TrEMBL record:
InterPro entries: PAP2/HPO (IPR000326), PAP2/HPO_sf (IPR036938). This is Phosphatidic acid phosphatase type 2/haloperoxidase domain-containing protein. It comes from Postechiella marina. Transmembrane segments: none annotated. Residues 121-233 form the Phosphatidic acid phosphatase type 2/haloperoxidase domain. It comes from the Bacteria.
């Protein structure tokens, strides 16, 4: 059982950079362990949320092919710089370089807010990254790029090594939403949050217009990222690993569906 330890040997503001770095590394590892252990401690509401998500995803999957057709037809209307930005930021190399820069500034200036945010990002990214990588191979869903070969959203090749069957979930979305949600949680201003989420949505949307993923690939990836970031952030808050001047205003995320409407709703 993974227990929350409220007593932390937190270094002071005058501690050396090396000591701060070791402390942050320990919190990152603990955060990863905590997030992976959560399913063993789920309660009724957690299973209800999972059930709602699964049923909603199944409902959304019924329009995957039609939605992809729409995105592909409108790809020519999307500015090239947005498509390029979405493609580049979703790549692990740039993603982790960006977070390394963020952490580096926080470490050398001894800015605890930046360090905490970076620890939240890396812990959540490792967790979601492992889950999405395993899921891609295990589920083996065909990508929209296979349409020319007669494939559609209902074609699967379990335990596939072929990248053409690594559609579910979207890796670009996992990374983009993980970073956007982790950063947005550090602000209380609604419009600032909206702006951050808007930037975080560029990569997922670009993948849809590029025909690299189905709508449910992106939806599932976003859901996974939000759940993991919230879990790790809750761990860091409860253990008092870092200072939280005030518990930031939460966004209540709900996956809803009714009739012909399916979506993720965030209540500020």
């Amino acid at each position: 059982m993974f227990k929350i330890n409220a007593q932390q040997e937190k270094p002071s503001d005058t501690a050396s950079i090396g000591k701060l770095a070791i402390y942050d590394l320990k919190q990152s590892v603990k955060g990863i362990g905590y997030s992976f252990s959560r399913p063993a401690h789920w309660k009724k509401k957690d299973f209800t949320t999972l059930g709602t998500f699964l049923v909603g995803s199944l409902a959304l999957s019924t329009i995957d092919d039609e939605a992809t057709d729409m995105f592909l037809k409108n790809e020519k209307h999307v500015p090239n710089f947005l498509m390029e930005a979405g493609q580049r930021f979703g790549k692990p190399q740039l993603y982790f370089a960006t977070n390394a820069a963020l952490y580096g500034v926080g470490l050398f200036t001894k800015n605890e807010n930046l360090r905490r945010t970076s620890v939240l990002i890396i812990s959540s990214s490792v967790t979601t990254g492992v889950i999405q990588s395993l899921s891609k191979t295990l589920i083996g869903r065909a990508r929209p790029t296979g349409i020319s070969q007669g494939l559609d959203s209902r074609d699967f090749k379990f335990w596939a090594d072929d990248a053409g069957f690594h559609s579910f979930p979207s890796g670009h979305t996992v990374l983009s939403v993980t970073m956007a949600h982790a950063i947005a949680k550090q602000f209380n201003n609604t419009w600032t949050k909206v702006g951050i989420y808007a930037l975080g949505s560029i990569s997922p949307m670009s993948r849809l217009f590029a025909g690299a993923h189905w709508l449910t690939d992106v939806g599932a990836a976003a859901f996974l990222s939000i759940v993991v970031v919230d879990a790790v952030d809750n761990f860091l808050f409860k253990t008092k690993a870092y200072d939280y001047p005030q518990k930031e205003k939460k966004i209540a995320w709900n996956f809803s569906f009714s009739g012909n409407k399916v979506g993720v709703i965030g209540r500020f």
